[in-house]
Amino acid sequence: MRRLVLALAAFALVVGPAGAADLPIKALQVAPVVAPVPVWSWSGCYVGVNGGGTRAQNRADLSPGGLYLTPPGGAPPPNAAGTGDFAADIAALSHSYDMANSGWEAGGQVGCNAQWGMAVLGVEGDWQWSNTSTSADASFAAFPNVGNPAFTDAAHTEHVDVTQRWFATARVRAGFTPWERVLIYGTGGVAWANYTSNTSVIFANVANPFAGVFSGATHIGSASTNQLGWVAGGGIEWALTNNWSIKAEYLYLRFNGFSYASPLVAATFPFAPGYAWNTSVTPREHVARIGVNYKFDWGPVFAKY
Known about the structure:
305 residues, 10-stranded antiparallel beta sheet, 62% strand, single chain
């Protein structure tokens, strides 16, 4: 019996390791690598088109100028001697007009944005066709000359108009994204615009031309000029797809004023050259528009885990 137990023990020592070697080994489980998920970003450059409405608020100041500002002489102006009018009468003949009217604008824009978290900073430039005109007309009855009531200032009419043909801006845009594809921004920068303006100041003939000031005086002038100014506003933009977005925007533009003279072209009596009527214009404008942009991607931004 003792010999049988020892034999079984020896067999177990020999067979055990060999049997274990024949058992299958479970493979090591490796977690799969998850590719980073791209996150849409406002970073990139874009081009687009826009259109909308404009509201011009222009101011025009009209007043006698040129030889009318020289000291008075023996004959009422305008005259061949080139003498002027009294300062108090010049003030009485100076008028200001606040003109407002609506129009339209359409054009295109190009820009670039960079995004850091929720913050977006960019630059944008645009050029717009526009058709916004304002005008004023007034009639004034004859009245005694303020400097010398023995003379009468003839009745007259005044007309002035201001038209904008195009404008352009170069602006910074800064905003944030309350939602991934919605950008709310403020914007500001410099602006340029083209303006044309016309003025006519026409006096009637007086019954006694020897006692009438400005008798038959007709002044006609115009100007075409490009003016520099500034612009400020804001808007909201919504990305419809990875490349296409739409926006709604408001801008306020204010430009440098400009002045020009409307020379005297006709009068009852001969006159010296140099008589004129001055016009000074201060242009301002509101713009409300919508636009569409196409963004060229700089490449995907990956989410960080």
